[in-house]
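=== RUN LOG ===
request id: a7f3
mode: sequence -> structure
chains: 1
length: 156
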Amino acid sequence: MTSRTKWTIIISAAVLIIAGAVALFIYEHNSIKVFMRSEYVKEVVLQKTSFDGLMDQYLDQVRTYNGSSESAAKVQGLANRLYSFVAALQSNLGPRVPAVSRDHYNAMIAAYQTYLDAVNLYQQAVSQNLGDQRTALMNQADAKMTDAQNAMNNLP
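=== RESULT ===
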């Protein structure tokens, strides 16, 4: 083996090692990292606080709904934000849930879906004229909201 061949092999090996390190760095930087359990709990608490604030705003708008187009737009806008919130939670948090917390996550998402079912019922109710049907839908929505709160309070 000549000196030139040795240097060619050494340089090629160094280039491969550097390229591998760069590829590993890019992969690690761009890959989804699973939360540690404590990180997961912290994120769930932060997201729940945000959701509760948004839900409170929505319920305030439902309770003060007056039939105007402005009021309807506010209720619909907040409902859309709630739907988007849960969808974003599923797509952003779902892949990062640690295996030990998977049952908690599934039950939590089911509770959020129950909240969205209540939102759907409220949407149907506020579009109705005052009367028995609106009252019945509001009562159903309130019951669904209570179910969602109980489910959220009793997560595994």
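=== NOTES ===
Residues 3-30 form the longest helix (28 residues).
Residues 74 and 116 are 17 Å apart (CA to CA).
=== END ===
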